[in-house]
Amino acid sequence: MLVWLTLAVLWSYPTAPAADDGFYLKGGETVVFFGDSITQAGTYVEYTEAFLLTRFPDKRFRIVNRGISSETISGTSEPDHHPRRPWAHDRFSRDVAAEKPDVIVACFGMNDGNYHPFDQERFDKFKDGIRRLIDRTRTETQARPVILTPPPFDPYRRLVLDPDAKTYGYQYAAFDYDATLEQYSRWLMGLKDKDVLVVDLHSAMNEHLRKRRAGQVSFSFQKDGIHPDDTGHWLMAQTLLLAWKAPGVVADLRIDASRSAAVAGLVTNLRKEGARLSFDWQSPLPMPMDVKWDAESIRIEDVRERLNRYRLTVTGLPPGRYRLTANGEEFTTIDARQLADGLNLLDCASFPANRTAAKLLSLLRDRQRRLYAAWRHRVGEGASAEDEALNGASVQDLKQQADELDRQIDRLRQPRPIRVIIEPAASESRPT
What we know:
This protein is an alpha/beta fold. The protein has two domains: 200 residues, no CATH class; 218 residues, 3-Layer(aba) Sandwich (Rossmann fold). Helices cover 37% and strands 19% of the residues. The strands form three sheets. A five-stranded parallel sheet has the order 2-1-3-4-5, with helices on both faces. Strands 8-9-14-11-12 form a five-stranded antiparallel sheet. The protein has a four-stranded mixed sheet with strand order 7-6-10-13. Helix 12 packs antiparallel against helix 13. It is elongated and about 80 Å long. The two termini are 42 Å apart.
């Protein structure tokens, strides 16, 4: 009897991997994201943080966005760019090293070729800028550098701001500018520096475009050809998380109704009364799935299985259809055979954990926006266009508001019990 109880306890724990099972981060790190306007937008940064918050509720990570629009790592600029593009190295000590990072995620390149056809001089300056970034990471910080290749340039969505342009640049980008970014990316992927992780966004995002355009030639995740939309930012976060060997399992709850036993998952108060099954499940939160993501892109990338596997499997139920409720609210009706194959809970929008995850993402965005605005004010950069609504708040007020949001997020991300009842649907329970 003691052996059986011991096995029952072991089987009852969640199946999600621990944070140290090959994952790049171990917990407690400060991760600084450093880049141009794509990083300033912050969406891929937020998605990455949302994954960390929900997958590792017992770990703390400090995520810092230090992206500024228009920058290059190379120091280059178009002749007609007024004012001249800022050089990211001018603020590395102030904005990156001062945060005492454990990891620096740098995403540059989109602006570095100045939207010209490939040019060797610009390319050499880009290489010098990246090498200097790696050197400064080693000499000014104790951080591990993670270099992202630039997202692709989409010529079909090229934004023409000056139809009378005399030279290539942001106002009138070269149609083949992605070939320039391809050269930059290939060189980055060839870096062999010790402890430098290079993540190939450029190839992953172009491959996704290839797949999507096989069925819809007009598909794009960059309305202006440069700045990714929410789906594009997810592809960036996904590529980074996969390179970090992120664990894909949220929870895989498996119950054998014929034995009234949980095979996997933290379950208590499991009871079977005829064809009715009830239990309390200590469920972790899934990573938030943004409603703004393109559904077909998420299907093609198999996000639910690769990075957000959240399933309920119940075997041993009599044939028929079953009504499933969570905390007293119905979230799906399903056939016993489908439930035995496994229900993807991410498909059940009203399941409590999905609602909580969506709320967490909203609070996270609000918190990051306030932290970013506080930093801009503190260093005298002024508010970004997105943060003009926060102009009236002081740095201290913004930080206090962010701290309160952080406390709310921390409470939300903790696993909490969900009362699940599985019972025959009304049509199945009527006498024949």
